Amino acid sequence: MLLTASHCGTSAGAGAVVGTAADSDTGLDTTVINVNGSPSGKYFDSGWDNETGYAKRVVGAGRSNVGDMVCASGAMSSIHCSLKITTADAAAEVNG
To answer: What backbone torsions phi and psi does residue 36 show, to the nearest 5 degrees?
Structure first.
């Protein structure tokens, strides 16, 4: 499985389809993709205009806890690390 923004669809790079959408929520801008073939075990964390970008190895999944240091990545904002989790199990609704 792969998690992406729903506005990105299920394509990567030059339009190569990476899988089929298993679930999507446009309100949360989130899509879960069933990956075709063997995933490389890496994720891309650079801006949309960086063709070479950076790939990092995925070693597992876990829960974010208050005090954890994390990285966040987005196509427009690129990668930002040393972000500290200050609240867990919270949700926000933003209108506009």
So the answer is: -80, 140
